[in-house]
Amino acid sequence: MTGLFGGTFNPIHVGHLQAARDVADTLSLDRVVFIPNASPPHKDTTAVEPAARLAPAEERFAWVEASIAGDDRFEASRCEVDREGPSYLIDTLAELTGGDAAGFVFIVGQDAFREMGEWRAPRELLAACSWAVCTRPPLLEGHLRDWLPEVARDDFEVAEDGRSARHRTAGTWIRLVEITPVDISASELRARLATGGGADRWLPEPIRDAVRESGCYTPGPASAIAPPRAAAQETPR
To answer: Structure pTM?
Structure first.
């Protein structure tokens, strides 16, 4: 089975890599495909403050490639970087899975999963592949059924413990996967880089120099950074 791990990776950090390893080990995945996106519909791509900037897609893709080179299970896809317009997950899944829902699992954080009702075509997304929802102690309160988009709740049979579910017709599943806590987020990391705070322990070693030298998150004119493609103001992912 193949894991699909999408996101801005702005920038990729050790928490992303740990989550991918934990999910791959728990679910015995053959490979994990990292999918940096170019124009995330749900993020402001015009921010000028260093800690809020979205680095150019080519930079972020290069950092992902360099960071995952040490694990034979990991690879990177350019499908969203090369696609014109905003990066919608439903289009990516159609391209990468070829309709083979049984062979793919999308890796997502529990916070993002709970917001899936705001994504484009959430009901179709949940039938297009299986889902590994990364959780970190303490687990968010509630039951998996409550986290599902309302439009798709009746499509799933949810386990009594609320930690897994199976699609009634597509055969896809959802499973909560506990990952090793890493006390960092991309926004916190950008803030450290913007203020000159210590960031090395959170950046994968192969990209530490490249991220700092890029100037993407350090004070200076935002115009010096190649702008990402303009994102349409539509439904996220």
So the answer is: 0.89
